[in-house]
Amino acid sequence: MTAPARDGSAGAAHRVVLTGFGVFSSIGVGAAEFAEGLRSGRSGAKPITAFDTEGFAHANGCEIVDFEPEKWIRNLDVAELGRASQFSAAAARMAVEDANLDVDVLREQRGLISIGTTDGESFDLDQLVESQIAHGPEKMDSTIARRVRAGRLSAAVAHELGLTDVEAVTIPTACAAGNYAIGYGFDAVRTGEVDFALCGGADAMCRKTFAGFYRLGTIAPELCQPFDVDRKGILTGEGAGVLVLESLESALARGARIYAEVLGYGLNCDAYHQVAPNQSSVARCMALALENAGVKPGEVDLVSAHGTGTKANDITEARAIREVYGAAPPRTISIKSMLGHTMGAASALAAIACSLAIVHRFIPPTINHTATDPECEVDCVPNEAVEADLRIVQNNGLAFGGNNAVVILGKYEEHR
Amino acid sequence: MPTLTEERATKIKEIVCEILELEEDEVSETSLFREDHDADSLRAIEILASLEKEFKVVIDQSELARMVNLKGVYEVVAESAGW
Which part of the chain is the Ketosynthase family 3 (KS3) domain (chain A) (predicted)? Predict the structure, then answer.
C-alpha cells in the first residue's frame, strides 16, 4: 500500500471510496435491512411516543422504537450518553464492523470523525427545562446535564472505539449537516491528511423541534408526501447514518467491499432567510458539487432530493434542479417519504441510500404519492421502486439559514 | 360584524408592538407590518401564536394572509373568538 502523503502536496489526490455503513432508521437498522426498506417502500410513520404530545392536533413521526444501544456500545456507559450520541456511537461501531475494519488497526492510523446534527441532545435539554420549570434549577439532573454538549456526538465515537489520533468534530449545519460531514471527510481522505474518516449525522426526536415545526405549520398530519400536489409538510424522524471513507488504495489493499465512490461535493451558505430556501442559491450549490466532482449534468442518473414535503422546499428545490438540469432532469426521489426528516442524519442516511441504490441497482420510490404537483416538475418514482443501472447519483441536503450541501456519488469503476 | 372591546384592542396592540419591537405610537390601524414595519413571516407566526395563547383561541394559519395590519388582526381574532 502506498503511504498517503500527509502534507496534502500535489499529486496526493486519492480517490475516495465508501466501504462501511452504520444505519439506524425507522425503516431499517443496518445496511441490508435499510436497503430492503428502501426497495419495498416501507413507511416509518406512526404516533410519537418519545415525548408527551398532548395539545397537538396531530403528532405522527418516524421514531425508532426498538433501539438497543447496548448491542453496539461496549466501552462507554450508555446512561452517560444522550440519545443522539448513542445513535452516532452505535452507528460508527456498526460502520466499522460493516467495513470489516480491525479497530486495533484503526487505532494506529490517523483519522477523522465528523458527525452532523441539527439538535444535538435537545431531547435532554427538553427534560432539563421541564425539570427546571417544575422543580427549580437545583433539581436538574447532573447526569443529563453532562450529556448535552453537541460535541459529544463525535467525541463519543472516538471514546467508544478508542481512537486517539483523530480529529472529532460535530458539524451543526442542521438539515444538511450529514453532507457537510461527508464533504469534510472527503477532503481529508483525498488529500491524504487522514487514512480513514467516519462521517455522517445523528439526531434524536425531541419536543422542541416538533413544536417548532408544528408552529411553523410544516408538520404533516399523517404522512410525508414529497412533490405531491396535496403535500402537507414533514414528519420528524430520528436515527443516524455513519459512512466509512478511505482511499481507493487502502480499500483495494485490504480487499474491502466498495459500495460507491465519493466523486465530490459542493456547499454554500446564502443566509437569505431563516427558513425560506433560495432557488438560485440551491442551484448554485448543485453546480458547485458537479464541478467539484468533474461531472456534467447529463451524466447524472438520479437525484436524491432534500424533498422534505413542505410546500416551499419542494417547489424551490424542483425549480432549482430544472435550473441546473434543464427541461428533462434525472429522476428525483425523496426518501423522507419513508423515514421522515431525520434532521442532521438526513443527508447521511440519504447518501447511504444512494450508494445502496447503486449497488443493488434500483431507485427507491417516493411513497405516499397520489399526484405530482404541476409546480414540481420531476419524476419522483411514485410509490414503487424501479430497477435501474445507476452510475452517478446526486444527494441534496438543504438547511435553514440557506446552508446547502450536495454530495456526488458514483458507482465504483476501476477506470474513471 | 364582530365587536371588539377597547380593552381587548389595547391588549392586541400591545402584543403586536412587543413582537415587532415597536412603540405603540409608531403603529396605526392600517400601517402594514411587512412593508411599513419590516416584519417577516416568522414574526407573523409569533404574533399568531401569542394571540392564541392570550385569548385561548385557535387561529387558522391561512388567516395570516389577512393579518397584515392591526385592523386585520382585530378582525381575525374577533372572528376566531366569536366575539
Answer: 13-411
- State whether CATH 3.40.47.10 applies to domain A262-410: yes
Q: How many CA atoms lie within 13 A of B39 on its CB side?
A: 26
The pLDDT value given to residue A11? 59
CB-neighbour burial class of residue A310 (10 A; exposed 0-12, middle 13-18, buried 19+):
buried
- Per-domain residue ranges of chain A: 17-253, 262-410
Spell out which residues of chain A touch residue B41, defining contact as CB-CB under 8 Å: 275-276
Please measure the distance between the N-terminal and C-terminal CA atoms of chain A and give it in whole angstroms: 20
- Please judge whether B41 and A217 are an interchain contact, meaning their C-beta atoms are less than 8 angstroms apart: no
pLDDT per position as a tens digit, A355-390: 999 999 999 999 999 999 999 999 999 999 999 999
Position A253: which residue type?
A
A276 touches chain B (CB under 8 A): yes
Separation of alpha carbons A48 and A126, rounded Å: 15
What are A411's strand-pairing partners? Answer: none
Question: B62 in contact with A at a CB cutoff of 8 Å?
Answer: no
ipTM: 0.72
Residue of A nearest to B49 (CA): A215
Q: Do A217 and B49 touch (CB under 8 A)?
A: no
Show the DSSP H helices in A162-258 as ranges: 177-190, 207-215, 248-253
Positive or negative, the CA dihedral A298, A300, A306, A309 is: positive
With contact defined as beta carbons under 8 Å apart, do A174 and A344 qualify?
A: yes
What is each CA distance from A374 to A239, A314, A315, A318, B12, in whole angstroms? 32, 11, 9, 11, 40
Q: What are the domain boundaries of chain B? A: 6-81
When CB atoms are compared, the residue of B40, B41, B49 closest to A215 is B49
Contact A334, A307 (CB under 8 A): yes
Mention every residue, 6+ apart, whose C-beta is less than 8 A from residue B77: B4, B8, B12, B51, B55, B57, B59, B83
Q: Are B63 and B76 in contact (CB under 8 A)?
A: yes
Render pLDDT for A59-106 as a digit per residue (tens, 0 to 9). Answer: 999 999 999 999 999 999 999 999 999 999 999 999 999 999 999 999
Fold classification of A17-253 is Peroxisomal Thiolase; Chain A, domain 1 (3.40.47)
Global pTM reads 0.92
Q: How far is B28 from chain A (nearest CA, A)?
A: 27
Task: Quickly name the fold that domain B6-81 has.
Answer: 1.10.1200
B52, closest residue in chain A (CA to CA): A215
The answer to whether A415 is a known catalytic residue is no
Q: Is B57 part of the contact surface with chain A (CB cutoff 8 Å)?
A: no
Q: Give pLDDT tens digits for A307-363.
A: 999 999 999 999 999 999 999 999 999 999 999 999 999 999 999 999 999 999 999
In this structure, the dihedral spanned by the alpha carbons of residues A294, A299, A301 and A305, taken in order and rounded to 10 degrees, is: 50
- Per-residue pLDDT, A6: 47
